[in-house]
Amino acid sequence: MKNLNILVASLALLVFFAGRPTGSGYEVGDKVKDFSLKSVDGKMVSLADYKTAKGFIVIFDCNTCPFSKAYLNRIKALNDKYADNGFPVIAINSNDSKRSPGDSYKEMVKYAKKNDYQHPYLYDEDQSVATRFGATNTPHVYVLKKTGNEMVVDYIGAIDNNTKDADAADKKYVEDAVDALLKGQKPGVTKTKAIGCTIKWKEA
Question: Is residue 2 one of the residues assigned to a domain?
């Protein structure tokens, strides 16, 4: 009976973790490998397309998560504030559309149009980019800085410290990180916990 219980527990864990990425992904200081993903405008987008970029605010996001919805205007505001200064927002949806139909590419196109996205919204259909980055939540932010010919991770985590109210947030992690980088400095805070819905991984 004991062995049977162990077997059942092991199978339960296997199902729970099925489809989830292994490894920790990028850490602060790591060089980022470029990617090419389809945007809601039908075009393929990669980091290399941005010839004059000083860096990027890469945000793993989606249509359906309540946390993503709460941060929608803040994400748009980050792009409004920093795109012209060389740090555009690149939003990536990695949710499996079978598990979350509201996050299909078709729904992404509708959602971006409805909310007047001025930043790229890309579809990571095979979830390879989320896996490589080590993203776990929506939203989950990676601030990258161009160093020579490489993009290097300088901040990972949350946008700020208040998921419900932007005005009540007294720690604006992403803004502080990008402001520091624009001044040629290192961010004071380089990693925080990303708070949000878990990415919906494909079933094995």
Answer: no
Angle among Cα 184, 188, 193 to the nearest 5 degrees reads 125
3-state SS class at 156: strand
Q: Could you read off the pLDDT of 138-188 as tens digits, one per residue?
A: 999 999 999 999 999 999 999 999 999 888 999 999 999 999 999 999 999
Instruction: Please count the structural domains in the chain.
Output: 1
Would residue 174 count as lying in a domain? Answer: yes
Domain with residue 109: its CATH number is 3.40.30.10
Site of tokens 């075009």:
43
Contacts (Cβ under 8 Å, ≥6 apart) of 27: 153, 156
- Cis peptide, bond prior to residue 139, ω within 30 of zero: yes
Q: Which residues of the chain have pLDDT under 50?
A: 1-19, 22
Distance between CA 156 and CA 141 in Å, rounded? Answer: 6
